[in-house]
Design brief:
Largest sheet: 6 strands, mixed
Keywords: Membrane, Transmembrane, Transmembrane helix
Distance between the termini: 82 Å
Low-confidence stretches: 22-30
CATH topology of the largest domain: Rossmann fold
Radius of gyration: 24 Å
Helix content: 40-55%
Structural class: alpha/beta
Mean pLDDT: 88
Length: 261
């Protein structure tokens, strides 16, 4: 084989390699969506939504707080890239929920190319702008907020309207994590020390229509705080909330009894 032929083959291989490198480079540029500078969510909306509602209208034991911290730390670190995390507490005076933190996971740098991206910078941004403030919001959400009422249904309705009802939100995965004793206690309807936890009594109350909502098939997980002194029949209580979740167009994934209660 002549030197000119060999040289041509080498040149062709170099051109092919360069083409592949360019393709990888441009793929890296075009595969990442444009992000909002404040929320880190894609400008056309998050690719998923997870809302955590923490109810501390009664104090939580130390063991329960430790377990909840672990559960929520796993949620923060495992949230998919470009999914939004919204950490909320009960806003009892406003009869709704209040957001402490709401941002998308911008990505922690794992899987990014050293050639076309900066994994180290992405990791630092994730820690400082997402993980740390999310962890601070979790800590704030678990602080004592004792109150004489517990509008859990109103808070969930507020979340459904605010986070699950837009056209964009309806088309993405939606998750709701509720950390609560689930003892609804308002003027419209109360389960506090009530012997009748039947869904029929609830449907006859003003609360049924007032707080009815559409959760748009959100996946619901309940981390349940037991309160034996005021809710001795946890079996019927859990059955009530299973019915409530179904009646409000959501799917109950799991009910987990928290330790320490």
């Amino acid at each position: 084989m002549s030197a000119s032929v060999i040289g041509g083959i080498v040149l062709l291989l170099v051109v092919i390699a360069a083409g592949i490198a360019l393709a990888v480079f441009y793929a890296g540029l075009t595969s990442k969506p444009a992000l909002d500078a404040r929320t880190f969510c894609p400008v056309d909306g998050p690719q998923g939504v997870t809302v955590v509602l923490v109810d501390t209208s009664d104090d939580l034991p130390a063991a329960t707080i430790r377990e909840v911290n672990g559960i929520l730390d796993d949620l923060i670190t495992g949230l998919p890239t470009y999914h939004r995390l919204d950490i909320r507490v009960l806003d009892i005076p406003g009869n709704k929920s209040r957001s402490l933190f709401a941002k998308c996971n911008p990505g922690d740098g794992v899987g990014l190319s050293e050639w076309t991206d900066n994994p180290r910078l992405a990791r630092l941004r994730w820690i400082e702008s997402f993980r740390k403030p999310a962890a601070e919001a979790v800590k704030a959400s678990l602080s004592s907020a004792k109150a004489n009422s517990s509008p859990i249904m109103a808070a969930i309705q507020d979340i459904a309207i605010d986070q699950f009802s837009s056209e964009r939100s309806r088309s993405v995965k939606k998750s709701l994590v509720v950390i609560s004793d689930l003892i609804e206690h308002t003027r419209d309807y109360s389960q506090y020390r009530s012997p009748d936890l039947g869904f029929a009594r609830f449907k006859q109350s003003p609360a049924y229509l007032k707080y009815r909502t559409d959760l748009h098939q959100a996946l619901v997980t309940i981390d349940y705080v037991t309160r034996p002194a005021v809710m001795p029949d946890t079996t019927r209580h859990i059955a009530f909330w299973q019915e409530w979740v179904k009646d409000n167009a959501a799917a109950l994934v799991a009910i987990h009894r928290l330790q320490g209660t």
